[in-house]
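Hi R.,

As promised on Friday, here is the backbone we talked about, encoded as structure tokens. Could you run it through your design pipeline when you get a chance and send me back a sequence?
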């Protein structure tokens, strides 16, 4: 499958989507999602058009930052919206924020996703016995910089944690920005234990308890909450990339997921920049649909 986004600049611009109209505005949900543009000002999907690899030869991945460290707004790539803008999650008519998990403030890492990956809800993971959560694979970036929402950074993978979130497999990749001053000291999950004592334990504690203030039970983990190493994590990422390839080629049922893209030339969902602009201008596009013929 040809992904012509391979040469895409990974420093992205962001443009607010028009404020919600109709019922959304009536409910007071006026937080504007962030559409993603490339450096030339062309609309792209952060889910489908940003390549998975920043440098395949060195196993360096692209990461789309959804939530900067120490913030609370639950922002995410909107998989069901055309062009998949980054927007705040809504539940029961209210914008979602994660509670502070004592003694932490907000998310304790830069949180985001690896593009061109998908945890298939129709695939039962052989390691966890649970199906995927229907999202791109999540990343916890542990470097020193507080990133910006919508920023695309290059990361190297260190390991992974298998969260079971309400019965679904929700892998959490642990990674570090390759531009971090300490990046050379991190090459596997044990380096995190050595360089940041207690950080992995805090990560497990955070994911275990972050939904409790909302009245939900503690989350569970596969492998008794133990982190798996870099090699294991790489296999998980590659598996989710294969699931994405099937999704974007329409070889599997993605349900309401929007696969509209501008760069995957052999995808039946590939569209023109004119179509992308029409998508932006359309006021209310149903989930999984496109305003273009």
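Update: got your reply. Pasting your designed sequence below so it's all in one thread:
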């Amino acid at each position: 499958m040809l992904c012509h986004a391979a040469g895409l600049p990974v420093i992205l611009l962001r443009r607010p989507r028009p404020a919600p109209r109709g019922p959304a505005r009536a409910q007071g949900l006026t937080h504007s999602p962030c559409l993603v543009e490339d450096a030339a000002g062309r609309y792209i999907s952060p889910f489908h058009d940003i390549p998975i690899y920043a440098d395949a030869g060195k196993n360096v991945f692209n990461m789309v930052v959804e939530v900067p460290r120490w913030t609370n707004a639950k922002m995410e790539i909107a998989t069901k919206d055309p062009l998949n803008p980054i927007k705040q999650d809504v539940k029961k008519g209210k914008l979602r924020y994660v509670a502070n998990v004592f003694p932490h403030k907000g998310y304790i890492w830069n949180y985001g996703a690896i593009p061109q990956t998908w945890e298939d809800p129709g695939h039962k993971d052989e390691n966890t016995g649970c199906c995927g959560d229907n999202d791109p694979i999540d990343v916890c970036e542990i470097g020193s910089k507080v990133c910006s929402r919508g920023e695309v950074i290059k990361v190297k993978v260190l390991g992974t944690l298998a969260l079971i979130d309400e019965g679904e497999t929700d892998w959490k990749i642990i990674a570090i920005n390759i531009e971090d001053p300490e990046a050379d000291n991190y090459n596997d999950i044990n380096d995190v234990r050595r360089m940041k004592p207690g950080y992995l334990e805090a990560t497990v504690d955070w994911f275990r308890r972050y939904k409790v203030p909302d009245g939900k039970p503690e989350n569970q983990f596969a492998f008794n909450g133990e982190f798996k190493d870099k090699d294991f994590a790489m296999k998980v990422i590659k598996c989710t990339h294969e699931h994405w390839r099937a999704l974007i080629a329409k070889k599997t049922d993605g349900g309401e997921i929007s696969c509209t893209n501008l760069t995957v030339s052999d995808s039946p969902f590939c569209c023109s920049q004119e179509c992308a602009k029409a998508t932006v201008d359309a006021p209310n596009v149903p989930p999984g649909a496109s305003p273009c013929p």
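One thing I noticed while checking it: The two ends are 23 Å apart (CA to CA).

Thanks again,
M.
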